[in-house]
Records
---
Amino acid sequence: MIYYTLYIIIYSVGENMTRFFVSPEDVGKKTIRLSTEDITHIRSLRLKPCELFTVCAGDGIDYICKLGEKGAAPVAEITEKHPSRSEPGVKCTVYIAYTKGDRMDYAVHKSVELGVYEIILYPSARCVAIPNNIQKKVTRLQRISLEASKMSGRGRVPQILTADSFNDAISRAKTADIPLFFYELENTLSLKTALEKQTAEQSITGLHGQKESIPSISVFIGPEGGFEPVEAEKAEKAGMITASLGTRILRNDTAPAAALTAIMYHFGEI
């Protein structure tokens, strides 16, 4: 048997501009109102009036701006705008069971980098720990989503949401064009085969194809201890597509990144 060594050089391309996010109501025809925090950040960067930066309002538009003034208040003066080039042509919603420690931090950060549309947290039978103050956890993770969006040049900030129960999460996930349920005991249908079959049946082509509507995909990830068999049965009966992420067992903070990478590659987004 011959083994091959593959060397991959990772590099980054794209606009290297500081990125800020504002609310849609902050965007005017020629200027954008900045928050006190953003103004402090700009001053700490010592940006000159001629230097450009990017402002996003979650509408998929990148506003290229320079520092201006409106009365006594600093504002972002719009010089041009264009559709954000970083938003993928598929809407991937990742469902992640509550996990202990800071594993969720990693899962959220990497999912946002890879182009997730939104993240929904939910309780499962084998969850090791469920936060006592879920809203505090969501607020923390939303902040991580914001920072990851800035770092990766996203055109919007993915929302961190919650489902009240496993059944509630399944009810939401099953409505996607491709509802994927990753089960560690699945040994027949791989993610690759599931994507090829579903995209062929539904004529889904992604951002670079001819389909007008953006396809939606659910990525359902279980807890540290895996799913209870009854949960897998409920998911299948609800219409979820039970698939495998390979022969190796992935942690639930690694699995979202692995699934999203494969999905984005399949749709030509990587």
Note: The radius of gyration is 21 Å.
---
Amino acid sequence: MRLLIFGFGYSAAAIARELRARAEWIGGTIRDESRAAELRTAGVEPLAFGSPHASAALRHATHVLVSLPPGQTGDPALARHAEELRAAPELRWIAYLSTVGVYGDRSGAWVDEDTPPDPSQPRTRARIEAEHAWHEVGKPLAIFRIAGIYGPGRNALVNLAEGTARRIVKPGQVFNRIHVADLAAIVAAALTREASGIFNVADDEPAPPQDVVAFAAKLMGVAPPPEIDFAEADLTPMARSFYSESRRVSNRRIKEELGIALRYPTYRDGLTELWRSGIWR
């Protein structure tokens, strides 16, 4: 396996760690050369995004992981490499990291991979367009629609420690989450099978966001921040759009088709292990 990763960020780094022992080579694209040493330390060859080196790597890649958000002109990797991807002689499988946000607002109802997308935000409409564009490449494709990602350095414990956690309450509001380690295991399982199709990447328990903050505070032995009514909350437009949608995401397909048993099936499991292990920061 020779894996080329477009966009080496938080999720891609966890996936690379999961696959490193099985890969002959892993390369990751970056836009900031100052990150090159970080990738080399992780056993990943750094490649400047859009460079001839990235194009050369693509000619020898057997698998591609796309972890880039679409821009104003569409998917940036396709804008640079669409023809090269179609012509890549050894490329067997592509993974595209998308979002459960493409389902739009379901007023707390359940969605699964057969639920028609109904994105209500410009950024999620762009995601659906990117999903469709990757289908046009004509290679086996797995699309991972991912819930809210948390893990070391990105979690409610960190927010509480930094004084940025808020308990905003909107009746009926629920979200799914996924620990980054489970995300990595799911993508690795799909890659091993070279599975195609859409997979929801979410935990077992959609829950109100204020409950997550309260549980994290209990673990830390601190008082939770006071509840704030959503109608009175001072939120950025991005945060307000996040609260405009509520849905419960079924993860049955990853269990039945990929054989996944989540390590952290609820936010309580994930936060408890982060706190116990001391690697939450």
Note: Residues 169 and 229 are 5 Å apart (CA to CA).
